[in-house]
Amino acid sequence: MMRSSRGRTILALLALIMVWPSAASAEDQPATDFGMGLASFVVTVPYLAVKASMAGLGGVVGGFTYVMSGFNKNAADQVWLPGDYVVTPDHLMRNRSLRFTGDPPQSKLSKK
Q1: Least enclosed by CB within 10 Å: which of 23, 57, 60, 89?
Q2: Interior CA angle at 99 toward 109 and 92, to 5°?
Q3: How far, CA to CA in Å, does 44 sit from each of 38, 73, 76, 86, 111?
């Protein structure tokens, strides 16, 4: 029961930290910067674990696709897409979108 209460408190504090800067003025505020930096670090830890696992799996599947497609790099590029590995304060304040899988490469047909 102690763990559940502690987890709820931490989640409530993180939610408060993420909401608080949106109400702040545009001036630099060290407490807000520190809070957003701390929140981005705390959110990055589990996000990075999931992202690194998916990147490793994507690397294996992309390599398999490359070999099975007759060494066609374009086919492997459709599987292996880069994305953001770190959650920044800009992501938390919605100034920049967080891309888990990245953007697919443009095909030659869509350019014509």
Answers
A1: 23
A2: 150
A3: 10, 31, 27, 6, 36
User: In sequence order, what DSSP letters do the residues of 20-52 get, joined into one string?
Assistant: HHHHS-SS--HHHHHHHHHHHHHHHHHHHHHHH
Give the model confidence (pLDDT) of 51-93 as tens digits: 999 989 988 999 999 999 999 988 888 888 888 999 999 998 8
Residue among 8, 16, 47 at smallest CA distance from 32: 16
Predicted TM-score of the model (pTM): 0.63
Phi, psi of 63 (to 5 degrees): -65, -40
- For residues 44 and 84, is the Cβ–Cβ distance under 8 A? no
C-alpha span between 5 and 46 (Å, rounded): 20
